[in-house]
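Why do we bother with a discrete structure alphabet at all? Because it lets us treat a fold like text: something you can write down, compare, and reason about line by line. To make this less abstract, here is a complete entry for Protein kinase domain-containing protein. Read it the way you would read a sentence in a foreign language you are learning: slowly, and without expecting to understand everything at once.
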Amino acid sequence: MLRLSPLFLALTFCLYPIVCYGNVEVSVLMEIKASLDPENKHLTSWTETGDPCSGSFVGVACNQYLKVANISLQGKGLTGKVPPAISGLKCLSGLYLHYNFLTGEIPREISSLNELSELYLNVNNLTGEIPQEIGNMISLQVIELCCNKLNGTIPSEFGSLNKLNVLALQHNRLTGQIPRTLGDLAMLERLDLSFNRLFGTIPINIARATKLEFFDIQNNTLSGYVPTALKRLNSGFSYNNNNDLCGSTFSSLRPCTDLDATMINPLEPFTPTPNTTIPINIPQSANIMPHCQRTHCSNSPNLRRVGIIAAIVTVIAALTVTAFVAVIIHRRRKQRIWSKSETPDHKFGIQESSGKSSDYSCAWDPTQTSPKKCGFCVESNSLQSFNLEEIESATRYFSDANLLGRSKFSAVYKGVLRDRSAVAVKCVSVTSCKADEAEFTKGLTLLTSLKHENLARLRGFCCSKGRGECFLVYDFASKGNLSEYLDVEDGRNAHTHVLDWSKRVSIINGIAKGVAYLHSDTDKPAMIHRNISMEKILIDQQYNPLITDAGLLKLLADDIVFSALKVSAALGYMAPEYITTGKFTEKSDVYAFGVVVLQILSGKSNLTLLLRAAAIDRRFDDFIDKNLEGKFSESEADKLIRIAVMCVDEVPENRLTMEDVIRELTVSV
Ligand SMILES: *[C@@H]1O[C@H](CO)[C@@H](O)[C@H](O)[C@H]1NC(C)=O
Ligand SMILES: *[C@@H]1O[C@H](CO)[C@@H](O)[C@H](O)[C@H]1NC(C)=O
Ligand SMILES: *[C@@H]1O[C@H](CO)[C@@H](O)[C@H](O)[C@H]1NC(C)=O
Ligand SMILES: *[C@@H]1O[C@H](CO)[C@@H](O)[C@H](O)[C@H]1NC(C)=O
Ligand SMILES: *[C@@H]1O[C@H](CO)[C@@H](O)[C@H](O)[C@H]1NC(C)=O
């Protein structure tokens, strides 16, 4: 019989991978925590003595060998930096840190993560250059770095990422040329380089990426010949707002001249017939068996399920309502229309109003010297007409006593107009608006034309150059917004803030009608709200829901939009596909609507995993708001939950449309 000496036992114990790696990873996680969350506000569940694989560390998921596989901390309000220590998590396959306020540079040490397949750092405040070493991360399938302040050039080393499927670098400050090596990416489907400062020509090689379906280079300073082969992408290719692109097969571009041929990128031979097949020579990665797969990363179904549950826990954790500390963005971009040096006679109105211009007397205050004269838009059939003076007196010169709320980009004041009607005046700093003044005015005018009993009516708007603000005048809703009716504890407000069952049902019906109206294209263009949440649903005196801010997000500057998205992600209203597609659709509104319905029924802002399970199993006692004291209709609750669950399906195609929702709601039970 083998006799084991204590020393041998101790050695075996210590070398046993789970124990050793586990200990190492906890200390790495503590380092990561200190860097991501320097004030220890959001990652308090990560503790030195805890077990990261038990599900108790928020956002951490382990594989079956108890090594950290995913870190999912999107929309968590993190204000620190991406730590070099991250390279200590050798089995990390997904790093999801998007929609936070992270600053600093992307550490080049990250490149030692050979297992990493998804890197999401989008919508943060990262600076510096993209480390070229990322080009060595052979497992990468998704690189999402959009909406940061990254500068420098796009590393040509990215061309060796054979598995890369998505490369999204839009809304940064990247300069230089588009590396021709990106054409070597045989798996690349989505390449978004829009809103950067890229120059030079589009490499012909790009068209060699055979799987490419989406290629966006809008708003750069590119010039010269656009490869004809890109035509195959159809609407998947966006190239507006560049310096001087040319190409015969693209209708909106000027034809190329001989000069364009001489201007071509010297590295790029000009081939007049780019359809000739160029031999594709994709460097095959050496037969590297990644460290983790070799030793202990194969998937066993049982433990994969644990992983999935952990992932669900993570997603649910992301649903947790976090009070967001608004971070003030210092806006540097000075927009043309607001600059003080502008000639005083500059004026613009609605270009498109085709003869109706007398009905729309909308103009920016043309003279800085008399800021009180403020042009105003009113509907043509309205007898009301306002100016800045009236708005000032309605709000008592924007007195604090009338302040209803303040957000990062606006302040809302209660006001009473001369005709004694109550209004809410939303003051939006002009620096928060999109730069294009014509689009902005046109957009607001469209919003004033929306009329539905479940939309907060935008009566009109007025922009004063003198004050540097726009004022959006809405009907006033006296009962606050729906978020004030959540998480009501027994206490002083319990009576005023618990909605009875019939009110909840009629509020849900009203919201559904309002969203369906927005989505419909009868008598108006179809619109997407983009930012549905409990806070955006106001309640009037008769407890009708009024959806506010419909379509407004589209008119605001990018950084305002990004910060709204961070909040929406943290509150759980963001549809999962938005993160990969970056596009709002009707289905993303439907998702947010579903979340709202679940919140109204449960009375809780935080839809925990347990709460969702209770909804799916129709365990009404566990799911329906206890403040109702059981006074609700089970059949109605069953129907509403069924609808809501179909709206929050992970797969957008499986979700109902708002039309379906309305139909389902009217089915009597
Ligand atoms: C990029 O930005 C950093 C500051 O964030 C600056 O120090 C650096 O010089 C910039 N690099 C380039 C190439 O512009
Ligand atoms: C995009 O380019 C157009 C035209 O040059 C410009 O008007 C617009 O402001 C740009 N948008 C952004 C966000 O830079
Ligand atoms: C390339 O274009 C030429 C002339 O336009 C045409 O004859 C040829 O069939 C095309 N080749 C391919 C592979 O499409
Ligand atoms: C990590 O995240 C990916 C993508 O969401 C998922 O497919 C995978 O199962 C996750 N792994 C674990 C161990 O949770
Ligand atoms: C982004 O970083 C810059 C400099 O690092 C800082 O001045 C700015 O306030 C930050 N903005 C946000 C939204 O965190």
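What the structure line is telling us, in plain words: Residues 6-261 form a domain with the Leucine-rich repeat, LRR (right-handed beta-alpha superhelix) fold (CATH 3.80.10.10). The chain has 16 helices and 19 strands.
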